[in-house]
Amino acid sequence: MFDFLIDGFGVALTPLNLGLAFLGALLGTLFGALPGIGPINGIAILMPLAYTLGLPAESSLILLAAVYTGAEYGGRMSSILLNVPGDAGAVMTTLDGYPLAQKGLAGPALGLSAVSSFVGATIAIIGLTLFAPLLANVAVMFGPAEFFALMIFAFSSMSVMMGKDPIKTAIGAVLGVLIGTVGIDSGSGVLRYTLGMPELYDGIDFVVMIIGLFAISEILLMLENSHSTDNDGELPPLGRVFVSLKEVLACKGAIIRSGLIGFIIGVLPGTGASVAGAVSYTTEKRLSDKDNTFGTGDMRGLAAPESANNAAAVGSFVPMLTLGIPGSGTTAVLLGALMLYNITPGPMMFTERPEVAGGLIASLYIGNIVLLMLNLPLAGVFARVLTIPRWVLVPAIAILAFVGVYQLHSDLFAIYLMLVIGVFGYLLRKLGFSLAPVILGYVLGGLMEQNLRRALSISGGDVGILWQSGISLGLWVAAVLLLVLPWLVPKLLAARKLSAG
Q1: Phi-psi label, residue 297: left if phi above 0, alpha if psi -120 to 50, beta otherwise
Q2: Of the residues 25, 122, 228, 355, which has the maximum number of CB atoms within 10 A of its CB?
Q3: pTM higher than 0.85 for the full model?
């Protein structure tokens, strides 16, 4: 395990990869600081540029992973200073972060959030180092039936844990699966949903899908809300940015507990930082809020979600690297980035492409230190990003999106398709749908279909193979329990209270 990590540091410490880790951390913090941009949009914009520049797979993944973790750091800024979450994972940060800023403690709040993010991410990186190779050894025993059951479990956990409305989450995932079936069916050669367009015979390209669904839809929302989201350049006074040791030690229990909670939740497929932040905040409130100070500017209420959402972001790499199952919407995009390089994430990647898996894990240690060094002294500089007017920001994002897609395809049809998908994503968001289940369905749908066909081919069409082994049966049972328990438990508690009354 440690030899594997040492080899990874040999990859991550090359001048190119060190520079990319620093650049990704810097850009990720900026993307996270801007409300509504977040890690997915940042990665979607940079991914085609990294690919067309000819970066090796490990270097490209190090850059994009640094953007991901950096955006989790940066998302706290608008949450604390403007009461506007930078991304879904920073929603819980607003509950105590903004009241602290109103009390004149914006600087210490930013400092504490940086330290909490560092500790939470460090806990998760150590967990990733220890458990990812072990889980990869177990995953080698998975066959097509086990992988199909695992993806069913991923969809069920996603529908329960991601978003406020499980029905809309499930619909979004199904829409993603349907979009993933466009093109020539690899098994039968039948054309599916191509509308007679030869350009769709190869399916909808991943980069076009990602940039259209996230970046273009975000641009449309920015244009719609420009009158209400532009600020006047006024930010709360930061004061001192460095948080005191006494303030950090007062929150040490919340930081460590939330880091562990965030890592465990991040490992579950389809959950992500938003779920981790909510669970850690409510848990810490029950354990520590003896005086009902949470929600009024309690440092512990800020530290808990900040530690958890960064730990969850790193934890989501575990299922992606070991099982080929994205742990969040952002790791689904990173999984697609690996597929651009014809690399299939999963247990064999640790032996076939150790420089990719090892270099990524080692770079997370380096990137986490870089992020702390950037975010403590430069919090005030990053905060000024919030004053960028929308009339500058929207054209810049649009140019990067169009250039990225055209560089990769050199085809106007890809541009038009990106715009159509962008409008589709915009409509979904207006209707209250989360886009993360759509992209997870898009990525997992093809893999699920392939493994289902392989399993049925092995069994001669006998569906019993799908739950024949102990692993696959356990995953099916877990998937059913995830769907049934959230509906059943409240009814049982209500019935018990009624009978007791």
Answers
A1: left
A2: 25
A3: no
